[in-house]
Amino acid sequence: MKRLSRFKLSMLLFALALVGAISYQIIGSHIDENGVLIEPFWLIPTSWFCLFAAIISALITLLRLRNSK
Fold first, then answer.
1. DSSP secondary structure string, 20-47?
2. What is the model's pTM?
């Protein structure tokens, strides 16, 4: 359990990535009466950023755990 607690940042970032991706799918996109696409585009790069940050954070934590032994 102690080892799992070291991955708090990675788990938080991964959860934020999932929430962003699911929110984008739920909100959806549509075209208004003027022909303009309306969508929550900011959720896409934010979700990808959180996912990559979670992966990098997990790798750094794993390397630190491996080097401390």
1. HHHHHHHH--EE-TTS-EE--TTHHHHH
2. 0.85
